[in-house]
Design goal:
368 residues, alpha+beta, DNA Polymerase III, Chain A, domain 2, 3 domains, eight-stranded antiparallel sheet, 7 helices
Length: 368
């Protein structure tokens, strides 16, 4: 294999590949990026066995072939090379690749190609094409609520459903639940439902950026492949029954207040500075007002009051400040509807513009 690639383009594609390559596997090849050179182009491939990436890059191919190189090291080397082009040549006898740019010359030891797994082609048993903007915006509103606890794998995913004119994503870590339903301008001819790792969806959103118009999703029995332009990202699907989110949503609430999102978020972020060491954020409701406060021993305390259309007996409820902030930030509407039952029952944040966003958050029991 002998190829020449534009420096900046190679760096951009290596950054994508290095994010996917494994940093923890005992198999050395999984920490690598596979370069497969054919006529006029090179495909970069990387995987950690959960996610897989195939990204093509235009190149001058003098001699076709394939090789696996350490992903992070290759990226660090290429990023610092001078000049506008980079040449890579496999030297089989030396078991390395010669990397040349300007007067700089590196020799990088290759990894075992036999240990690098085959990555799936785009497509699947069912293929759905969706607007990229609607898909990535829905990811941004929901994915933060997915669990990061690998001991509960089902909750590390986002339940993605697409059918007719509707796209829905649901995520929960058992302390909060986020739901976003997005209306599609063009109805789908075929739908699907799958529990997709949140990490995979966040990577898809990165790949889409602001340029892509559509995204093709191919669903197989235990795998999904997202095609963004010429880039293909594959991911395993999470086995098991995702919680029935509809059963978790209360049917009735005692109080329903419509509030200005930016105003509440501004106060919550400010007062949260004093909610340290797992201290709760306290929301105290009285006639016509909401008082938000926090106190951490040996750190300090803070409180702030803002007008709120509250009527009834005063009560106080506590929330995790990080979770409450995330819910307000994800609402994506100028005004929210805050729905409450009691200090010991979950609260619901709903976008007041009818955009289909719901965020259920469990309370923290307060010590009076």
């Amino acid at each position: 294999m002998k190829i020449t690639i534009g420096h900046d383009e190679l760096v951009a594609h290596l950054q994508q590949a290095a994010r996917i390559a494994s940093s923890r596997s005992a198999i050395q090849a999984l920490a690598g990026v596979q370069l497969v050179a054919t006529d006029g182009r090179v495909e970069l491939r990387s995987t950690d066995m959960d996610l897989g990436l195939r990204t093509p890059v235009a190149a001058q191919v003098v001699r076709p072939g394939g090789v696996v190189l350490p992903a992070r090291l290759l990226l660090d080397v290429v990023r610092r090379l001078p000049g506008s082009d980079v040449s890579l040549e496999l030297r089989p006898e030396q078991q390395d690749v010669e990397v040349v740019a300007g007067s700089a010359r590196f020799h990088l030891r290759i990894l075992r190609s036999e240990d690098f797994p085959e990555l799936p082609e785009p497509g699947g048993d069912r293929t759905v094409t969706l607007p990229a903007a609607a898909f990535t915006e829905t990811i941004a509103r929901v994915s933060r609520a997915a669990s990061r606890d690998e001991t509960r794998p089902i909750l590390t995913g986002v339940l993605v459903s697409a059918e007719g004119s509707s796209l829905r994503m649901v995520a929960t870590d058992s302390y909060r639940l986020s739901v976003k339903e997005t209306a599609l301008e063009q109805p789908l001819t075929e739908g699907f439902e799958a529990n997709v790792p949140a990490r995979a969806l966040e990577e898809v959103a990165r790949l889409c950026g602001e340029q892509e118009a559509t995204i093709a999703i191919g669903v197989r029995a235990n795998q999904v492949v997202f095609q963004v332009g010429e880039v293909a990202l594959s991911s395993r699907l999470i086995d098991g029954q995702f919680p029935n989110y509809r059963q978790l949503l209360p049917e009735q609430f005692e109080h329903e207040l419509t509030l200005d999102t930016a105003e509440v978020l501004d106060v919550v972020e400010r007062i949260s500075l004093m909610a340290q060491k797992n201290a709760p954020l306290r929301l105290s409701f009285g006639e016509g007002e909401l008082r938000i406060s926090a106190q951490t021993p040996d750190v300090g305390e803070a409180s702030e009051t803002l007008p709120a259309p509250f009527v009834g007996e005063p009560f106080e409820i506590g929330f995790n400040p990080e979770f409450l902030t995330a819910g307000l930030q994800s609402a994506g509407a100028e005004r929210i509807s805050l729905k409450l039952i009691s200090p010991l029952r979950p609260g619901l944040i709903e976008a007041a513009d009818g955009s289909g966003f719901l965020y259920l958050i469990m309370p923290i029991r307060l010590n009076v």
